[in-house]
Amino acid sequence: MKDIFIGVDFGGTRIKLGIVFQGQIIADANIEAASELSFEQRLADIALEMKHLLSQGAYRLIGIGFAFPGIVNFYTGRILSKYVKYPGAENVDLQAWAKVNFGVPIAVENDARAALIGEWKHGAGMMSTDLVLVTLGTGVGTGALVNGAPLRGKNFIGGNLGGHSTINFEGSICNCGNVGCVESESSTWALTQIAKASAEFASSKLAELQIIDFKNLFELAAQGDALAITLQERCLKVWSLCVINLIHAYDPQKVIFGGGIIKSSHIILPYIKEMLDKHSWIGSGDVDLVVAARPEHAGILGVYELLKQKITDNAIELR
């Protein structure tokens, strides 16, 4: 019988689950995020999916990890932020949920910080002591590793709010309440509204789409659609300035990029490098810009590493 760990990564469109054995993903699954539903509803579905995974092999579950898109107290396992996704999450005692349903401990961490740790231990950040991770997609997530330790801070927001830093002080109110955030200026959830506000929208092929995402934006830009080209340029500039701010704040050896849109890294990374050379205090030769090596499972591997840490701290062996 294998002693295994199950990680759950709450993404923007899918919730990913993975069984980890000795640092390797040996089985995985995913379900629809449906993040508009209550957190307790999603937990019930997650528990069913976990039990289904466990039924497929000779496994003994010894721990669970959640990578969650919000502010998390890693030490207590409580979700602190009341946000637009997974309503009611801040009211759930996940330590108790894990004990009642599975009889095991749980580690809970912010999803971007968990992905950072997964890439640090198992991916593009191995052997590094100072890293920044940026995920681009439904939102913009960030995490920072400083002097070989994940940055958390007094209120557990350290390194996590790059997507909610102000990039346009005359911008619109973000869904977080701040003004002109990176996310509200350039993310999937804001893109349709930004496009519709343009005078060119009616004549653009973007107007034929019910929902505009980065995949079809970049495709239409490549086909020469004028508005798509303008919006792509806008997004690239916003992301570049966000990265410059993160580099100025944390001075990393590498910036690791993840998220669905990073499939267009051949467009994104050269643009950011050029902006770094023009506008940063350091040049692109002083910091490596790299694509995530474990984009599908970094969050799961990250909470696996954190659970190992917690169990080690409690003098219990995780094999």
TrEMBL record:
Tree of life domain: Bacteria
Matches recorded under Gene3D superfamilies: 3.30.420.40
Protein family according to the UniProt entry: Belongs to the ROK (NagC/XylR) family.
PANTHER family membership: BIFUNCTIONAL UDP-N-ACETYLGLUCOSAMINE 2-EPIMERASE_N-ACETYLMANNOSAMINE KINASE (PTHR18964:SF149), ROK (REPRESSOR, ORF, KINASE) FAMILY (PTHR18964)
Name of the protein described by the UniProt record: ROK family protein
